[in-house]
Amino acid sequence: MNEPAIYGLMAEFDTPDEIVAAAKRTHAAGYRNIDAYSPFPIEELWEAIGFHHNRVALVVLIGGILGCMSGYALQYWVANIAYPINVGGRPFHSWPSFIIVTFELTILFSVLSAVFGMLALNGLPMPYHPVFNVDRFSRVTEDKFFLVIFSSDTKYNDGETRAFLQSLGPKSIEEVPS
Amino acid sequence: MTQLLEEVESGRKRAPVIEPGHSFNTVTKKISDIVLLRPLSIGWIAGLLLCFGLVNLLLVAVGYLFLKGTGIWGITIPIGWGFAIVNFVWWIGIGHAGTLISAILMLLRQTWRNSINRFAEAMTLFAVACAGMFPLIHTGRPWLAYWMFPYPNTMGVWPQFRSPLIWDVFAVSTYATTSLLFWFVGLIPDLATLRDRASNIWVKRAYGALAMGWRGSARHWSRYETAYLLLAGLATPLVLSVHTVVSFDFAIGIVPGWHTTIFPPYFVAGAIYSGFAMVLMLAIPIRSIYGLKDFITERHLENSAKVMLGTGLIVAYGYAMEAFMGWYSGNRYDSFLLWNRLHGPYAFWYYSLLICNIGIPQVLWIRKFRTQPVLLFLVSTVILVGMWLERFIIVVVSLHRDFLNSSWGMYYPTKWDWFTYAGTLGLFMFCMFLFMRLLPSISIFELRTLLPESKVKAE
Fold this sequence. Notes:
Chain A is α+β, with helices and mostly antiparallel strands. In chain A, 45% of the residues lie in helices and 13% in strands. Chain A folds into 2 domains: 6-52 and 127-177; 56-122, no CATH class. Chain A contains 5 helices and 4 strands. Chain B has helices at residues 2-9, 24-36, 42-68, 83-107, 117-138, 164-197, 201-211, 218-251, 263-289, 298-328, 332-343, 347-359, 367-371, 373-400, 415-438, 444-448. Chain B has one domain: Formate dehydrogenase/DMSO reductase domain (Formate dehydrogenase/DMSO reductase fold). Chain B is globular. Classes of the chains: A alpha+beta (178), B mainly alpha (459).
């Protein structure tokens, strides 16, 4: 318990170019348990830290298919089984009039799965996270870019990792207490 | 920015999407300071109080309606759909521009939309809230409105899915949900910005709770961008379907003037037409009062004016087609409808509609009218009035004289009709006033991506 618990080392950068270059080098150096933080989406950045595929689209596809099927099934069941109404001898299974609600429920389920799927995969809401312990990190929602190598990375070594981060030319390096 | 370069190269110099000289700091500061630092002004308080008065008028009007029933309105047979449906269609149409800006223009990679999408989406939400109220109170027994949703009940009754009115319930409620979520997802990174910039601990906690611990992780951004893009892709067909379904409320019926296949596209175009007029009526004062002319530039005004001009012409085509079918169909009821519009008791309003929606907006062909805020504001007002008249003509003139002249009648709105309408205008503006001071009215993180320094240069 004498060792101070460190969550990781955080390097700060000023521009998108710098952080992307730094993230690429960090990934190339073999660090895998890393994350980068930016005030706006940078496609090159998530590619650089080796995050190539997210599963949001799959979640939305499943949600959409479920919405479509449940929408149609609901109407079929209501119009044919639960509450059939004979309107001038027209068929109970009058599918053209079921298209619209089916469509709307497809969209609704897809939207719900996109939003809540994205939040769930991101692990949000998460009110507390160790990176918030670094004071300067509040600039991440404004104009600064941060790269963190987590201490859980197999290659992580206090001295070496710090030296490596220093070689990337960051503006500052700070310890992230856990 | 490549887009800017292309324009300079093409020899035509247009106003930029964002004035030069801004950085990540200044963009963030300028927009978040409106929420966090700007003191309350007399004008804002006065405006809010005025709208609050109108909200109370709405409460009185609706309260009295619940007490007495829809008989306090001007609706009678044959005109069972009076102001309630006119206002419903008008409000929901206004909402459509917000979704068009946030979703369709995003798919088309129109980056200029980044500085107007946030408040346009807020406008959508508030307009849909106003719209949704009308069919609800028009049912007469709004406390039973949940009967329209399919749920297992002891009565053993289920909704009739062959009815356009039930389609409406699904379309509008899906639209409201989607608009809310789309708007909220767009807000998350900006709420985090407010959290990090707020000095008051309670303000910080409030925005922090809403931001849900957003920390700008690259993995999060990746999923966020995918989700946002998919939401835009889903909202696009949705917004087109909503006004299509609204038009089905009419087109599925057999009343002359309603039973026509041109309604869906013509309604959607009219919705976007009126919506952009409302966007401009909000954007023009907002940009000058809050000093946002750097972000909502002449370019935005001009582009919106062009959208209005385009959709206005589609609407004009719709009117022309209606008149043409009145003559060409050879159907006596259809040709009577045309005659009745031009010479009947509501002819004055039909001509007013033509002047407001087709005549006056043609000034937008002139560049000055597209870039001069005051002129543009006036044209937008005219269009909003015109679009309201359009719905009035469609609802009332079609109903008041149908097949049998023994069942003809006239429609006279009562003061309660007007109070309810004025009340929803107040509610809409009340929400807009609060929104302007409580949330970032321009998407900060999307503005950052418009800055040249946000682009990663290829190695």
